């Protein structure tokens, strides 16, 4: 379970912390930015419900692809790190709720922190095109309302 919480779903199911960061970087939607500001701290502790139910992500076609495939990408990165010997099986099975960085360090050492940071950066890059798509969809909706 420590591997799962540290590398497969860091920041919450579907890499929602990456979505929060991508929203804070690139979203022009005030509602998404407000929810992301609220969800940032819980996301650091692996709690994804503020984003999942706040945006909402359930049945949201815009974010369906990264939400469902984000964990696949993070798992592939972590398993590659294990395969090449960069990280070894965890020494301590860190429980759910330990903040990012600390959980990786306690379970896998400094190499675990590096892998977790790589996963977060790749996850943010994975979500950015969909955040930009959401911006375009919102702008189009606003334009149609004003006509």
Give the overall silhouette. Answer: elongated
End-to-end Cα distance: 53 Å
Percent in strands: under 5%
Compressed to H and E, one letter per element, the order equals HHHHHH
**Helices and strands: which structural class?**
mainly alpha
Radius of gyration: 16 Å
Domain unit count? 1
Number of DSSP E strands: 0
User: What count of helical segments does DSSP give?
Assistant: 6
Low-confidence runs: none
Average pLDDT confidence is: 91
Helix content: over 70%
Task: Outline the biggest β-sheet.
Answer: none
Concise account of the structure shown:
With 147 residues, the chain is mainly α. The protein has one domain. It has helices at residues 2-8, 16-26, 30-44, 49-54, 64-83, 102-146.
Description:
The longest helix has 45 residues, at 102-146. The chain has one domain. Helices cover 71% and strands 0% of the residues. The termini are far apart. It contains six helices and no strands. It is an all-alpha fold and 147 residues long. The chain has helices spanning 2-8, 16-26, 30-44, 49-54, 64-83, 102-146.
